Amino acid sequence: MDDPLVARMREFGTTIFAEMTALALRTGAVNLGQGFPDTDGPPAMLERAVEAVRGGLNQYPPGPGVPELRQAVSAHRAARYGLDYDPDGEVLVTVGATEAIAASILALCEPGDEVIVFEPYYDSYAASVALAGAVLRPVTLRPAEGRFTFDPAELAAAAGPRTRAILVNSPHNPTGTVFTREELELIAGLCAEHGLIAITDEVYEHLTFDGVPHIPLATLPGMRERTVVISSAGKTFSVTGWKTGWVCAPEPLVRAVQTVKQFLTFTASAPWQVAAAHALRHELGWVAELRAGLQAKRDRLTAGLTAAGFDVYRPAGTYFVQADIRPLGFTDGLVLARELPSLAGVVAVPTQVFYARPDRGRHFLRFAFCKRDEVIDEAVSRLKRLA
Ligand SMILES: *Cc1c(COP(=O)(O)O)cnc(C)c1O
Question: Which of 41, 195, 349, 355 is the right S-S partner for 33, CB 3.0 to 4.6 Å?
Fold first, then answer.
């Protein structure tokens, strides 16, 4: 049979993650490719989920989400950022941030509309844009003074008459950049000038280092009314398998997203929702410890990668480090990623897979540091073989 997959999804057929994970398993390499933690979230939150299941919270919750979670999301946004969202009508619970992103793009973009996305990007963005029949307009983040950022002129040039939305992920996976107020002001200015909707992926909102603040784009003047804010419990509370996310936006935007969401999944799993509500209200102290621990892990891994001979970009947030492979004499991250298990017993992800134009990220590898210290130390000691 010819490939039965619709044409617009064919370029998304195979992902590098399956290949790299299989490689790690086959070779016994330390896997720093996968971006999920190898330790559990706050015990009382886990207990809350167990209680919910045992207590009979096992049928369809309301389409917009369990009220307890919508209220906790609203209270969290207000307390942390001074942004008010009505839990009834301006908050929608989704099956992770991933569904929120897909539903937002499907709900808000007509076929042929353009969506500006910073590359490298989280891999679901391009697929969601393609599913909607929309057109990706990539703007490249490049290293400048030790961090990845965009060229304001390139950003300005990316918007045109067909541009509908801009997707903004800060703290940014995979570069670790946390956008500054100045960068966000440029994005806000573009949105105002071209009447764009902003879709912000803030799943790493709590995971910033060295006191660098996460500034939601929606806090900038004029932005709340045109921004769809997306976040999720997965990264904040180390429960990436729970797939519990949420959208905060003005009512007409939430209604649009919910119109699509109800026919993708109708609603999200109930037990995780009450546990996530507990966590947002009572476990931010635990998150502060997670953040401090991750900062130390970042330092551990960046020091090790530097000692191994990579040029390392120290991230201000997220789980990930970008390493330039050229000082070690390599030029293609995909080639090196496939050889790294035999060269050094470690698995990483070639960053080029996160670009619309892979040549722009050819020389980077992405390493994850959301792992136990002994795992990072083992990887670092193995990577010394490269030097
Ligand atoms: C992990 C991740 C997501 C997915 O979040 P879920 O809640 O698991 O769907 C979305 N965006 C980015 C940037 C991520 O790293």
Answer: 349
Asked whether the beta carbons of 18 and 349 are under 8 A apart, the reply is no
Q: How far apart, in whole angstroms, are the C-alpha atoms of residue 157 and residue 154? A: 5
User: How far is 357 from 170, CA to CA, in rounded Å?
Assistant: 21
Residue 276 near ligand 1, beta carbon < 6 Å:
no
CA 293, CA 134: separation in Å to the nearest integer? 40
Q: What is the mean pLDDT of each run of 10 residues along the chain (387 residues)?
A: 90 84 92 93 98 97 98 98 98 98 98 98 96 98 97 98 98 98 98 98 98 98 98 98 98 98 97 98 98 98 97 97 97 96 96 97 98 97 91
Residue with token string 């809350």: 48
Strand partners, 228: 199
Give the count of beta carbons closer than 10 Å to the beta carbon of residue 357.
11
Nearest CA, atom 15, ligand 1: 173
Going by the DSSP 8-state scheme, the letter that residue 34 receives in this structure is S
Summarize pLDDT for 144-182 with one digit per residue, the tens.
999 999 999 999 999 999 999 999 999 999 999 999 999
Q: How close is the Cα of 139 to the center of ligand 1, in Å? A: 20
d(Cα 294, Cα 228) in Å, to the nearest integer?
Answer: 28
CB-count exposure of residue 11 (10 Å: 0-12, 13-18, 19+): exposed
Instruction: Please work out whether the CB of residue 122 comes within 6 Å of at least one atom of ligand 1.
Output: yes
Mutate to test the pocket of ligand 1, among 98, 205, 319 (most ligand atoms within 8 A of CB): 98
Query: Which residue out of 122, 148, 214, 246 has the highest number of ligand 1 atoms within 8 Å of its CB and is therefore the one to mutate?
Result: 122
| Dist. CA 230 → ligand 1 center (Å) | 10
C-alpha distances (whole Å) from 143 to each of 148, 149, 176, 194 are 4, 6, 11, 27
The strand ranges marked E within the chain are: 30-31, 91-95, 114-119, 135-140, 142-144, 147-149, 163-169, 197-201, 227-232, 244-248, 311-313, 320-324, 346-347, 349-350, 364-368
With a 6 Å cutoff on the Cβ, whether 96 touches ligand 1 is: yes
The pLDDT of residue 18: 85
| Helix, strand and coil in the chain, % to nearest 5 | 50, 15, 35
Give the burial class of 1: count Cβ atoms within 10 A of its Cβ; 0-12 exposed, 13-18 middle, 19 or more buried. Answer: exposed
**CB of 232 sitting under 6 A from ligand 1:** yes
